[in-house]
């Protein structure tokens, strides 16, 4: 049945809605506000096909998934197939009833916390920090598993240690950091870190992880081993067919940050859409880059990293395979320099 598909995705990243109750300065998902969302019937059909395909994990994001009435029914359908489900949330709209549902469905919640209260509220809106902390208390009461994610940029780059300490103090099941991503037309460029600034973030995380013997995940940082050696630091590459992003309208994307649509799920089966997706020239050039900068070709991480984050490469350097601008080899950062 699946013979035409090169690889069954391990994880589907599903932007179930672009709608949100906040208006964060650094958000890249605003680009999807103008697209037409799938109906609940269409979402449930997609969930069924994801389940029948054998996908192991669906990472639901947005927007803010927890404000949308369709989110819980979709999760219920996914869980019917035994799929692991996580949600990325600002956790400002949680109540007892919702927490009970998430607990019953065994959903893991990645909670956005961007530092201590003052800096978090600057980035996400006044009063949001306290709402998020209250929601975490509700999660704990009802046994909802959760971790924290810091979107780090110029506004909060000096509060990484405080974030990490906070995450431990609230019993986060996982701790993650993601650099604020650039957007089309560099609309949020004033928040995006320089290579040297992000290197400092990474090294702060490494020291904390080693001191506390606690793992920290660096999202969208496949070049991490060039800067850190700790076994407590996690990282991954997304230039693989194991990950597929889907936007609110059902389009399969070349990463939710780039917003590049590859194929529309509507009017065809997910199998057909995936076959078209995996054969698409853009996906092929991402997963098997025909040309990369010399620094990449000579790098020990080439076969794993494959040029790093292609969204950053596109928006900061003009091409999907132009090299990750945060990578120290691409930026020319002196890795032996005390950062």
Structure description:
- The chain has helices at residues 40-53, 71-80, 96-104, 117-124, 128-142, 160-169, 195-212, 270-279, 281-287, 294-297, 302-305, 310-317, 328-331, and strands spanning 11-15, 57-61, 84-89, 108-112, 146-152, 175-179, 216-218, 233-234, 243-246, 251-253, 261-264.
- With 339 residues, it is an alpha/beta fold.
- The chain has one domain (11-287): TIM Barrel, CATH 3.20.20.
- Strands 8-7-6-5-4-3-2-1-9-10-11 form an eleven-stranded mixed beta sheet, covered by helices on one side.
- The N and C termini lie far apart (53 Å).
- The mean pLDDT is 96.
What does the secondary structure layout of this molecule look like, with pairings?
Blueprint: E1 11-15, H1 40-53, E2 57-61, H2 71-80, E3 84-89, H3 96-104, E4 108-112, H4 117-124, H5 128-142, E5 146-152, H6 160-169, E6 175-179, H7 195-212, E7 216-218, E8 233-234, E9 243-246, E10 251-253, E11 261-264, H8 270-279, H9 281-287, H10 294-297, H11 302-305, H12 310-317, H13 328-331
Helix pairs in contact: 1-2
